[in-house]
Design a protein that fits this description.
With 748 residues, the chain is α+β, with helices and mostly antiparallel strands. The protein contains 33 helices and 18 strands. Keywords: 3Fe-4S, 4Fe-4S, Electron transport, Iron, Iron-sulfur, Metal-binding, Nitrate assimilation, Repeat, Transport.
């Protein structure tokens, strides 16, 4: 069992008023720019209707989602990888712009600039794609709003399968409902499997599906592969884009924009725990009507002690486990079973679920038009056909849909009797299998819907997931998002990532303390020479204990000096310790921990040397992440800790002269870090040399000051100028080949 956590969403269609606030706010935040004018990450459709884009639910046309083979396996409906590659340049399953709509604006300026005339000026439509005037607007994202258009077109709705739709074309039998849609962030996303360049991925920490804009090559196979058609092609950038579930807000513990601004309070956010090992089995069940129950079986009970223990072992923090216990999404989907997935027959295991809407029934029931089923009306006779809703939410299986509708009716009947009639009716709860506590909880969550009940989003700590200090110093120039590739020392769950070779060993486990003394000493020194962030400071007590167990590796003098360094790093003023580290190692070149800077400086020879050293690591099974340089002394010590003692001693001895130079400079600066470098020389079997005259040279200028450009203008004003006050002529300073020339009088 491999437990993962995901932020899921439930939308209560029984309360949606179709105001489109969610669509407008999402559009303003994410897609109000050139290239995605036609894209709506969130849109609200009126059902019945063919939707946006046209007939998106008809997978016989678009071939989105997955299909089950005869042998029980599943594959994308677009067929095999070879089939996908053969259609890269001629994809027959790709929607055209007319399937969405041609985005447009209006000539508002004409209303003010038009000449005087008898008729008022008109703001005509103008295409946002071509810039030309449009004679007629043919379609839009909410073209079918409130049953807009003729029923003949709306009747092509795929959910009318097995429904006698002709009678619903008559005015007295018509019905409608709103369906807000966004990316489902599926457990088994077909878009991920369809992307030839591998640019789409599902985040481990919260389950959000994202597109790496650096890897995306604009093949648009993901657009065809997504059965919900919630991936869009940005014609300006040539990249695919989709709903990002407002992950910057999710990471800070805030709800998505569409949820925050929802007027009807229909959206709920919460944590769901699931077994990642059961995803393939659930998506591969034989009958489509079993997919709903199969997905329920994937979800785990956050109150189960065994689940909690395994979740902690899988690095899910306690804050997320507590949020899962209080999750409204878990309650509505698993406990009350009133929330259902959208089109589970696509086999993507969607994670945005819906509470089905109730039809107007009170007046009809009182007039005898609807028969009663026990204590509640018969839901099979409601205005919205049960089969239509079942085709939408349960792959045609009516039983779970009827149960959800009956429980919602039971809650209303019970609360009406309690608050209006003054007489509780427990029989209605027994009929649908609910207790008093459950129906009261349903009433608070679904009817009152306070902010705290609707959103249970635990915050994450990205500062623990990425080594931002190292990224700041090693990013360089970037033409994308290469500076932050998501590779960090810990997962966002707060635990250590499972890595074959831990490069940064600040958080040492006590199991490491019983290993070879030489290996332990090398790891301790590697940790102490790292940036003294919060993780390192928390590990200092363990490092002290580990150091005491390495008596055979270090001399008493070296060990005592390193213990003194640990005491110094335990300075309660964390900012002072961090500033001391920066001043010591980053403000000058003599004490740089990047060893090749002492050999090659910034010359072109440093690059090949780094590659050779990295290949040496790889041959021994040590692989660095993208933000690590192989000549960084803590990394060198980590590599030495992997080797047999004699091999590590020889390896460190090769760079003893560099260590001697760094140590001498640190001694002259009276830095406590000199103890760690001296202990490294002790591991190499090299005696520590006293500082020479070169090391005692005056302090070198800070790197920022060393590369500061001098003033190019002088004498314009005596205020703040280093020239004589009587010099007022503008002077252009010409620079010599080796130094900056002194300013000369007159114009050049």
């Amino acid at each position: 069992m491999k437990i993962r956590a995901q932020i899921g969403m439930v939308l209560n269609l029984d309360k949606c008023i179709g105001c489109h606030t969610c669509s407008v706010t999402c559009k303003n935040v994410w897609t109000s720019r050139e290239g995605v004018e036609y894209a709506w990450f969130n849109n609200v459709e009126t059902k019945p209707g063919i939707g946006y884009p046209k007939q998106w639910e008809n997978q016989d046309k678009w071939n989105g989602g997955w299909k089950r083979n005869a042998d029980g396996s599943i594959e994308p409906r677009q067929r095999s990888r070879l089939k996908v590659l053969s259609r890269l340049f001629a994809n027959p399953n790709l929607p055209q712009i007319d399937d969405y709509y041609e985005p447009f604006t209006f000539d508002y300026e004409h209303l003010q600039s038009a000449p005087e005339s008898k008729a008022p000026p008109v703001a005509r439509a103008r295409s946002l794609l071509t810039g030309k005037r449009m004679q007629k607007i043919e379609w839009g994202p909410n073209w079918e709003e409130i049953l807009g258009g003729e029923f003949e077109k709306r009747s092509k709705d795929k959910n009318f399968d097995d429904v006698q739709k002709d009678i619903y074309g008559q005015f007295e039998n018509t019905f409608m409902m709103y369906l807000p849609r966004l990316c489902e962030h599926c457990l088994n996303p077909a878009c991920v499997a369809s992307c030839p360049s591998g640019s789409i991925y599902k985040r481990e920490e919260d389950g959000i599906v994202l597109i790496d804009q650096d890897k995306c090559r604009g093949w648009r196979m993901c657009v065809s592969g997504c059965p919900y058609k919630k991936i869009y092609y940005n014609w300006k950038s040539g990249k695919a884009e989709k709903c990002i579930f407002c992950y910057p807000r999710i990471e800070s513990g805030q709800p998505t924009v569409c949820s925050e601004t929802c007027v009807g309070r229909i959206r709920y956010l919460g944590v769901l725990l699931y077994d990642a090992d059961e995803i393939e089995k659930a998506a591969s069940v034989e009958h489509e009507t079993d997919l709903y129950q199969a997905q329920l079986d994937v979800f785990l009970d956050p109150h189960d002690p065994r689940v909690i223990a395994q979740a902690r072992a899988d690095s899910i923090p306690d804050a997320w486990l507590e949020a899962a216990k209080k999750s409204p999404v878990y309650k509505m989907a698993m406990e009350w079973k009133v929330a259902l997935p959208l089109h589970p027959e696509y086999r993507t295991l969607p994670m945005v679920w819906y509470v089905p809407p109730l039809s107007p029934i009170t007046t009809a029931a009182r007039e005898g038009h609807i028969s009663a089923n026990g204590e509640i009306p018969d839901v099979t006779q409601l205005r919205i056909p049960v089969k239509y809703l079942a085709n939408l939410l349960t792959a045609g299986d009516e039983a779970p849909l009827i149960r959800a509708l009956e429980r919602m009716l039971a809650m209303r009947t019970y609360q009406r009797g309690k608050h209006v009639d003054g007489c509780e009716n427990p029989a209605v709860l027994e009929q649908v299998g609910l207790s008093r506590d459950e129906v009261e909880d349903m009433y608070c969550v679904m009817a009152l819907a306070s902010y705290e009940d609707r959103f249970m989003v635990p915050g994450t700590h990205r500062e623990y997931a990425e080594n931002l200090y190292d990224l700041k110093g090693s990013c360089g120039f970037s033409f994308g998002n290469r500076c932050s590739d998501g590779v960090g020392e810990t997962s966002l769950f707060g635990g250590k990532k499972r890595r074959t070779i831990p490069i940064r060993g600040a958080g040492m486990k006590r199991a490491d303390m019983n290993s070879d003394a030489h290996h332990v000493a090398a790891r301790v020194l590697a940790a102490l020479l790292n940036y003294p962030g919060a993780e390192l400071r928390a590990a200092l007590p363990d490092l002290r204990v580990a150091l005491q167990s390495s008596e055979r590796a270090l001399s008493d003098e070296s060990r005592e000096a390193v213990v003194a360094l640990i005491d110094t790093l335990q300075d309660p003023d964390a900012l002072e310790a961090e500033a001391r580290y920066v001043d010591t190692f980053d403000r000058g070149r003599r004490t740089s921990l990047h060893l090749f800077e002492h050999v090659h400086g910034d010359s072109r020879e440093r690059g090949p040397a780094l590659i050779d050293l990295q290949q040496t690591y790889a041959q021994q099974g040590m692989f660095l992440t993208a933000d690590e340089l192989p000549d960084y002394l803590p990394v060198v010590l980590e590599f030495a800790a992997m080797q047999p003692q004699h091999t590590a001693r020889e390896f460190l001895a090769e760079m003893a002269h560099l260590l001697q130079s760094i140590h001498a400079a640190l001694v002259c600066q009276h830095s406590p870090y000199a103890a760690a470098v001296a202990a490294t020389l002790d591991l190499a079997g090299e005696p520590v040399q006293p500082p020479d005259a070169a090391a005692r040279a005056p302090a070198e200028p800070a790197i920022d000051d060393e590369w500061r450009e001098p003033d190019a203008f002088g004498g314009c004003s005596p205020s703040g100028s280093h020239y004589a006050p009587d010099v007022q002529t503008i002077q252009f300073v010409r620079r010599d080949a080796t130094s900056f020339a002194a300013p000369k009088e007159g114009l050049l």
